[in-house]
Amino acid sequence: MVITSRKDYPLTTNFPYSLELLQVSYCRLTRVDMRMLCLRRLRKLDLSNNHIRKLPAIIGDLACLSELVLHNNYLEIFSIGLCNSTLQKSLQFLDLSHNRLRALPLQFCQLQELVHLKLDDNELLRLPSNIGQLTKLRFLTAARNKLPYLPCDFQLLCLENVDLFGNLFDHPNPLLPTIHLQIPMTLLEVAARATIKYRLAYGPHILPAHLCQDLDLIKTCPCRRPCLDSFIQVVVNLNLHQVSHTVVLVDNMGSTEAPILCYFCSLTCYSEFLDKYHQRNR
Fold first, then answer.
1. What average pLDDT score do residues 152-173 get?
2. pTM given for the model
3. Which residues lie across from 179 on neighbouring strands?
4. In the beta sheet, which residues pair with residue 141?
5. Of 5, 8, 55, the residue nearest 26 (C-alpha)
6. How far apart are the C-alpha atoms of 55 and 49, rounded to whole Å?
7. What is the mean pLDDT of residues 91-118?
8. Whole-angstrom distance between the N-terminal and C-terminal Cα of the chain?
């Protein structure tokens, strides 16, 4: 069913319960009609070109939903409730372009069936630091946002197409690191590194929830050793062809490189990186 005019929008009758595809566009909706959320067979929901500001968490109860299109609305947040819902197992296509999003929650990357993600023309200041967990993601567009750099996990993606044109990318300078080394390391740092290195089991039944979250988001040095709060941080250039088969140019100068955060677990690792950097730039 496709509705593209406010005068055609049903006010007194329900949507057919057998619907698998529903598009309601250009109807000036300010919220999601709860009658839509009774459509348990719905596979594609297109609410593009409306005035929706907030999504009800109950959308996550649409267990068959594989495509959600929210292009050109007024969304400012994508709720954690949706990230924790049954959408984790069903959602493959998500269009959040032309909204007012400034950030996505870390839990967003629990939507691990995502193949196609559109984030163009928002106000994003960062991408989730654990974006590398989206192992099935193949198409990513986040053009015309306000991203200064990409998270370290970005280099773990394996994409077919990426478009990051028109962001406010910083000019990286690996010679200006941010140093957060702890000498000597705290007991927490030592324990966290050992937990990840030796793949020890952990969970909220063993550790406080905030420590579990810290371990889930632990940083990784190029040497593959983990680091929690003791690290050296630098911004370096990443050639996007390393993570994507097809790359849309990042700027009008024809660049395919974008700045990415990089973490080092020790002065030794950072020094080795600097040696290689100087050799490449002689």
1. 94
2. 0.89
3. 232
4. 118, 163
5. 5
6. 15
7. 96
8. 62
The string of DSSP letters for 38-79 reads G-TT--EEE--SS------GGGGG-TT--EEE--SS------
Amino acid letter, residue 275 = D
User: Per the structure block, which two tokens stand in for 228?
Assistant: 């929690």
Radius of gyration of the chain (CA): 22
In tens, the pLDDT along 190-249 reads 999 999 999 999 988 988 988 998 898 899 999 999 999 999 999 999 999 999 999 998
Give residues with Cβ within 8 angstroms of 187, minimum separation 6. none
Token pair belonging to 183: 């000498």
Asked if residue 172 has pLDDT above 80, the reply is: yes
DSSP string, 140-181: EE--SS--SSB-GGGGG--EEEEE-TT-------TTSPEE--
3-state secondary structure of 124: coil
Q: Which residues of 5-40 are buried (b: 16+ CB within 10 A; e: fewer)?
A: eeeeeeeeeebeeebeebebbebebeebbeebbebe
Report d(CA 99, CA 120) in Å as an integer: 8
Under a CB-based contact definition with an 8 Å cutoff, are residues 281 and 196 in contact?
A: no
**Burial class of residue 117, CB neighbours in 10 A (0-12, 13-18, 19+):** buried
How crowded is residue 165: how many other Cβ atoms within 10 Å of its Cβ?
18
For 264, the token pair is 């080092």
Q: Please, are residues 135 and 112 in contact by the beta-carbon 8 Å criterion?
A: yes
User: What mean pLDDT value characterizes the chain?
Assistant: 93
Angle (CA) 209-211-216 rounded to 5° is 95
| C-alpha distances out from residue 152 to 10, 123, 263, Å | 47, 20, 8
Q: Do 72 and 47 meet the contact criterion of CB atoms below 8 Å apart? A: no
